[in-house]
Design a protein that fits this description.
Elements: H1 3-37, E1 55-56, H2 60-69, E2 78-79, E3 83-86, H3 90-96, H4 103-106, E4 111-114, H5 115-120, H6 127-135, E5 142-144, E6 161-163, E7 166-168, H7 171-177, H8 185-189, H9 192-205, H10 210-219, H11 245-259, H12 272-275
């Protein structure tokens, strides 16, 4: 194995072992989440009920504030339907693309907008959202374009990440750089999830954007995460579903932060250096465990 291959193997190994170390903790958190939300969160039926509100805050003040601006500035209370985060930058997209259904929200960003309204703005139907919620046993989910690695519609500028002294233009660039040369599909399937895990941890914990990104990810707790897109591995396909591995890996990071008893200050700023002690330790027996056992072969 050449030096480049050894470096790649060490990086991938970290991602694999980190995932195994956190698996039990994440499973426990997921079980707890089902207990907390099983009966409290009820999915709103299609139609007018979707626009009645996104959460049940338990107080008139919270409901009045959301209704007055047409947007939820803070994600609190019982989630009644899937909801998406929009930064101020998305106003440019709304105006440029002529998404009139989102016009009333544009001047009040940042905030959270019901997924049904977002999907309906360009004329998409709600079947994919319904299927995603059904797959989550009726639990509405949250998502943000900041959680993605590639941004085709909504705006977000990915920052550089540095792994083992090598700087990559973005997390997606790092991920593809871990592919074996010459490319070997079977070898790549044993380590591509681990590569994504390492890249995401660098993006959310150690990049220039990590403070804001981890803050946003923490605010999404304890709601499920779901990425609707035409990718059956990294997302959840509207027609056929999927593994949604990107969301699962982000939940790992989020649950680790919660388990570390991270504290969000009153100003809403998450201090990574003060509240977390994340690290990427070195592991032996690299590339010994497959993350893709029994998965059909696919490229990318």
């Amino acid at each position: 194995m050449n030096m480049q291959g050894k470096a790649r193997a060490e990086i991938i190994g970290r991602g694999k072992m980190s995932g195994k170390r956190e698996q039990g903790k994440v499973r426990a958190a997921n079980i707890s989440g089902r207990q907390d939300h099983g009966k409290a969160i009820k999915f709103r039926a299609p139609g007018a009920a979707r626009e009645a509100g996104a959460t049940r805050t338990g107080g008139a003040a919270g409901a009045a504030g959301a209704a007055s601006s047409g947007i939820m500035p803070v994600l609190v209370g019982t989630l009644l339907q899937p909801i998406l985060y929009f930064s101020k930058r998305q106003r440019n997209v709304i105006v440029r693309c002529g998404l009139s259904a989102l016009g009333s929200y544009a001047d009040h960003l940042p905030g959270w907008i019901p997924a049904y309204i977002v999907a309906g703005a360009p004329g998409f139907n709600a079947k994919g959202i319904d299927r995603a919620v059904e797959d989550l046993q009726g639990r509405p989910y949250v998502w943000a374009t900041e959680f993605e690695n590639v941004h085709t519609t909504w705006e977000f500028s990915e920052s550089e990440i540095t792994v083992q002294g090598t700087t990559y233009s973005c997390m997606e660039s790092f991920y593809h750089a871990q592919k074996p040369v010459p490319f070997d599909q079977s070898e790549w399937l044993t380590c591509h999830v681990a590569a994504m895990r390492v890249g995401l941890r660098q993006k959310f914990l150690y990049s220039e954007q990590s403070k804001d990104l981890l803050d946003l990810l923490m605010y999404s707790h304890p709601y499920p995460l779901r990425s609707l897109k035409r990718d059956c591995l990294w997302g959840f396909q509207p027609e056929h579903g999927g593994e949604d591995m990107l969301a699962k890996l982000l939940v790992e990071i989020r649950e680790e932060a919660v388990a570390s008893r991270a504290v969000i200050s009153q100003s809403g700023v998450f201090d990574t250096q003060q509240n977390l002690s994340f690290s990427l330790p070195t592991y032996n027996n690299l590339l010994s465990v497959s993350d893709a056992k029994n998965r059909p072969a696919r490229k990318g």
